[in-house]
């Protein structure tokens, strides 16, 4: 029987706690604990644990799945640890001590410095500078040597057309040879060097051979440049290969192919067994948006594994059009380049061809959100030019700033100490970025404009205090510099964000009441979907199951005059019929130009609502609420996809986004598949 029980954890919490999920500091020292006593199922309930003391025990290693996503400080002094690589499961770790573990050496110190990107203190010493050297300079030198070894001794051994068996053979020979012959640094670090060389060599083979073996008929633009995660010039960064941040056009061999790819003409109610039957007249009036699946991509796999059907994909956004920037569809004037994120990577995809144009990877990150802005930057000869910049953020609480055209991650902002749920740029202030975090705060940043050497200065302008975790944020279209709306774990809130106010930390100005399933009104509910359909109409979910709420911002917010932290009842315009699932975080989006709303469900289907026949009536001052729930114009059913001969099942649609002209529809799933549909 394990020595660790729920009662023990609650008792050893500092201070004592009544619930595991509330524990932030835990002392498990001097309990004679062995590795088998650390039960992953029990530890997975310590979701907010930040400090853990395991000193003076009998641990020889760490289990690989302790699931402590927020762990910052770990004490393992006086144990019997033999290996440290399992510590990579704690990517937010900042302080680590493991003194008096006789089997650990200097090589292990270097391994944790490489694996833990946030680590500042190791055994009480500040290792920031040394760790940066290990992660960057050391990696650059080793990567250069590994690449040279391949080019000199192995490249010509591979025939132009080769079999999987030949690749397997040459891989085995190359890994053995490169670990034996690539030498760098003092002999005391030879074990660390061999460990890193093997890692770099495997990544090199995955990118180079994986790309050449790709059976996808669409060509890809090969990019091998890597991104140093600092404010260096692109030329310096391009010399870095195998670093933590990598841009690449490499995409896994996608073994997922649709067994049925015929045109989807599903009508209302036919796409989901939970859908209620609608009136015949409504079905006749609903527009049939003939949509055809173009591509199913598996480009966010962890470690580039073709077996990864577990990575969750969360956010996607189309690149803004530039005169010489994003690819334009030849028929419609719209960008067809979309940024997607999930797991450890951000991808740029050409929707028409299905080509993964670029890929940015941070091995210790899980990206939750991406957003575009267009900056007017000074280039050579003091000339100014507009460039698209992509911001990406996630579990580490850090915002990465990527100059896509230059294939360069030029900087980062350490915005929060907890994960960032979502980010968005101001439509009027090109450098203003909002970050919404699990620390229950929404911060406004001025990211600055980088100079020709990519030097920049970011500053925090405002902090909005929330009562619960903000999940979705939206700036009010008619006054984007004055009001921000947020859907949170505990309700829907509005803040005054006007910068002429002196107060830099602000409480919410209004909390909104919504109809609940019992016919009353409630403020206490999770709002995991939020978007504006036009200047006034807001679409949100989920105050009650089976529907999406459509309401008026102006009539709701102005109803009771001014005041701080007031409760406001929303003026409901309509309810959209949706799945009755209680599954959370299946978010929605809108296409304002076409008056469309999109939302995925728990069965892999995409619900599409055409509200163009309602918006005119809603815009009038006396616009009446639609009495009946509005059915979807169409439900796109998830096609039968097979991976390794088996059909993919239990597909959740986490997000659905169209381009501004509703030419392409990008669908992000819970099974590491990005699906791209095109309107016929």
From TrEMBL:
Fetch the Pfam families from UniProt: LRR_LRWD1, WD_LRWD1
Q: Which GO terms describe its molecular function?
A: chromatin binding
Q: Where is this region: Disordered?
A: 215-242, 255-289
Gene3D superfamilies, from UniProt?
Answer: Ribonuclease Inhibitor, YVTN repeat-like/Quinoprotein amine dehydrogenase
Does this UniProt record's set of keywords contain Magnesium?
A: no
The WD repeat boundaries are 413-447
The protein's predominant localisation is nucleus
Please report the stretch or stretches of sequence annotated as the Leucine-rich repeat and WD repeat-containing protein 1 WD domain.
290-679
Tell me where on the tree of life, at the top rank, the source sits. Eukaryota
Its recorded name reads Leucine-rich repeat and WD repeat-containing protein 1
Name the species this protein comes from: Ardeotis kori
């Amino acid at each position: 029987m394990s020595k660790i029980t729920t009662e023990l954890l609650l008792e050893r919490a500092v201070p004592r706690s009544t619930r595991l999920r509330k524990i932030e500091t835990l002392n498990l020292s001097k309990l004679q604990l062995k590795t088998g006593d650390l039960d992953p199922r029990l530890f997975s309930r310590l979701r907010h644990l930040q400090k853990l003391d395991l000193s003076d025990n009998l641990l020889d290693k760490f289990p690989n799945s302790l699931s402590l996503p927020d762990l910052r400080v770990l004490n393992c002094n006086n144990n019997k640890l033999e290996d440290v690589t399992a510590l990579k499961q704690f990517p937010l770790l900042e302080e680590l001590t493991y003194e008096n573990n006789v089997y650990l050496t200097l090589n292990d110190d270097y391994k944790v410095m490489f694996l833990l990107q946030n680590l500042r203190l190791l055994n009480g010493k500040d290792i920031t500078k040394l760790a940066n050297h290990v992660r960057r300079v050391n990696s650059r030198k080793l990567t250069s040597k590994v690449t040279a070894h391949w080019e000199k001794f192995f490249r010509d051994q591979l025939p132009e057309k080769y079999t999987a068996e030949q690749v397997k053979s040459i891989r085995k020979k190359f890994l053995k040879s490169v670990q034996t012959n690539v030498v760098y640094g003092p002999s005391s670090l030879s074990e660390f060097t061999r460990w890193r060389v093997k890692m770099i060599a495997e990544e090199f083979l995955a990118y180079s051979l994986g790309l050449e073996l790709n059976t996808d008929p669409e060509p890809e633009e090969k990019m091998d440049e890597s991104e140093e995660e600092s404010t260096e010039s692109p030329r310096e960064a391009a010399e870095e290969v195998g670093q933590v941040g990598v841009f690449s056009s490499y995409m896994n061999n996608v073994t997922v192919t649709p067994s049925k790819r015929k045109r989807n003409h599903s009508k209302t109610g036919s796409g989901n067994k939970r859908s209620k039957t609608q009136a015949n007249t409504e079905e006749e009036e609903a527009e049939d948006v003939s949509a055809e699946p173009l591509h199913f991509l598996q480009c966010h796999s962890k470690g580039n594994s073709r077996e990864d059907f577990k990575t969750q994909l969360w956010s996607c956004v189309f690149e803004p059009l530039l005169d010489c920037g994003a690819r334009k569809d030849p028929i419609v004037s719209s960008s067809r380049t979309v940024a997607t994120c999930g797991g450890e990577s951000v991808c740029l995809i050409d929707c028409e061809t299905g080509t993964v144009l670029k890929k940015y990877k941070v091995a210790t990150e899980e990206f939750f959100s991406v957003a575009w802005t267009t900056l007017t930057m000074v280039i050579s000869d003091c000339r100014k030019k507009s460039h698209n910049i992509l911001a990406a953020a996630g579990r580490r609480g850090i915002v990465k700033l990527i100059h896509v055209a230059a294939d360069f991650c030029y900087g980062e902002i350490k915005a929060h100490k907890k994960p960032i749920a979502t980010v968005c740029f101001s439509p009027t202030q090109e450098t203003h970025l909002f970050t919404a975090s699990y620390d229950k705060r929404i911060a406004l940043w001025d990211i600055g404009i980088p100079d020709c050497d990519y030097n920049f200065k970011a500053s925090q302008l405002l902090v909005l205090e929330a009562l619960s975790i903000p999940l979705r944020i939206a700036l009010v279209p008619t006054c984007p510099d004055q009001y921000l709306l947020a859907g949170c774990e505990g309700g829907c809130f509005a803040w005054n964000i006007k910068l002429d106010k002196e107060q830099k930390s602000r409480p919410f100005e209004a909390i909104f009441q919504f109809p609940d399933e019992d016919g009353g009104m409630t403020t206490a509910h999770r709002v995991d979907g939020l978007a504006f359909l036009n200047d006034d109409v807001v679409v949100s979910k989920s105050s009650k199951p089976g529907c999406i709420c459509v309401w008026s911002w102006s009539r709701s917010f102005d109803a009771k005059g001014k005041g701080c932290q007031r409760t406001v009842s929303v003026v409901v315009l309509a309810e959209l019929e949706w799945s009755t699932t209680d599954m959370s975080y299946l978010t929605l989006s809108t296409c304002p130009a076409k008056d469309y709303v999109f939302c995925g469900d728990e069965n892999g289907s995409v619900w599409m609502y055409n509200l163009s026949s309602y918006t005119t009536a809603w815009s009038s001052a006396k616009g009446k609420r639609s009495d009946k729930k509005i059915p979807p114009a169409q439900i796109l059913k998830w096609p039968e996809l097979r991976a390794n001969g088996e059909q993919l099942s239990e597909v959740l649609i986490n997000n659905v986004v169209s381009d501004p002209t509703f030419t392409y529809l990008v669908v992000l799933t819970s099974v590491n598949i990005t699906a791209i549909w095109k309107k016929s």
